[in-house]
Amino acid sequence: MRENMKKTYGYVRVSSADQNEDRQMIVMRKVGVEGKNIYMDKQSGKDFNRPQYRKLQKKLRSGDLLYILSIDRLGRNYEEIQQQWRILTKEIGVDICVVDMPLLDTRNGKDLMGTFIADLVLQILSFVADNERNNIRKRQEEGIAAAKAKGVRFGRPEIIVPEDFGEIVRRWELGDMTFEEARGECEMSQATFYRKLRKYRNK
User: Fold this and answer.
1) Which one is catalytic: 15, 16, 44, 189?
2) All domains of the chain, ordered by start, with CATH?
């Protein structure tokens, strides 16, 4: 019966589709998690809808063991990490082992003191992880501002209008060339051509 079978699961999360999950997967296999019991999500920082994590939560039963590589795999920020830890350990009743932080292994220290220490370490690490993300974001914003101040431009490079744009437009409007020919002469997409045309006419 399922009630008597404690299972071991692993959860892997990377913040974007191009980030490599190999390190987390290697760790999961090293601690003995079967491939079918490893759940992995890839999503951007703005989108925290984690379908595989939701599936995992439905699978978990009291007494199961969940491995994660680091505490920040559970959430984006301090509050969310705390919330997910409470749901997993208190509401569902699973054990959690954070591989990068052996102190956060709920299989150890089941007494009051052990629980107190684990909860205290969790709060500190959650705060540190959240604070580090905020610092990284702040450094990125400061770096972008400094680069802009030096004249560095971000985003797509501005498409230059050819010197004879007015003549090309005139020939197109007279029917001397097709729209595709006019667009091709300017090396522009349809949307860009019309945008430049509006600016040209407004002048």
Assistant:
1) 15
2) 2-132 (3.40.50.1390), 145-203 (no CATH)
Rounded to whole angstroms, the Cα distance separating 117 from 147 reads: 45
Give the H or E element holding residue 57.
helix 51-59
pLDDT in tens, the chain (203 residues): 444 589 999 999 887 655 678 889 999 999 999 999 999 998 754 556 789 999 999 999 999 999 999 888 888 777 788 888 889 988 999 999 999 888 788 888 666 665 666 677 777 767 777 777 777 778 878 777 777 777 766 666 667 888 888 888 888 888 888 888 888 888 888 888 888 888 888 87
Q: What is the pTM of this model?
A: 0.58
Closest Cα partner for 25 from 64, 73, 62? 73
Largest CA distance in the chain: 88
What CA dihedral angle connects 118, 65, 27 and 125, to 10 degrees?
Answer: -20
- SS3 assignment, position 108: coil
Q: Environment class of residue 12 by beta-carbon count within 10 Å: exposed (0-12), middle (13-18) or buried (19+)?
A: buried
Is 70 considered catalytic here?
no
* Three-state SS at 105: strand
